[in-house]
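S.,

Sequence below, as promised.
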Amino acid sequence: MRAGDGITRLAGTRAGRGDFSLLRRLWRPPSVQHPFRPLSALAEYWSNETLAHIEQWPDTGLVREGLHLFTELPRTEPTKVVLATDLHAGNVLRAERQPWLVIDPKPFVGDPAYDATQHLFNCSARLRSDPDGMIRNFADLLGVDHERVRLWTFARAAAEPRDDWRNGDLVALARAIGP
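The prediction came back faster than expected:
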């Protein structure tokens, strides 16, 4: 591989293994006067988008629990760091000064456990086959609370806005890992 090549050129799990070390390197406490929005702002936006489509929800109780967590989880963050929020293999390039360069971050400030969810959703087949094991393993690699990763993953699967609320995979995942 040469500088500028994407991590996607690596085979599946080899590419995914790099995500955890990149996230840990990126997470830093924000400066006092940082320009980034709080993760709670993203969660509130998602909640409003989801509430606008209430008639499409496949399981009202499940979605309402997800919406509740979108409010509760940011309020109870154990620590706040600058988050990437959209780290996936397509946003990681081979570099010269460091092994990998992260591009196209969508920075927010909040709970590092949230950042684990994007990797999990990018590995949807593995997540569906062993949700608890995958959540626990990735949380352990990141050094974050697996329970908070599980709750963020549940909230996103249950209540994140989507074009098609009939997506049975997300509903099944939410039911499998729900509180």
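The helical segments are 12-26, 39-51, 60-75, 112-122, 124-129, 131-142, 146-159, 168-177.

Coffee later?
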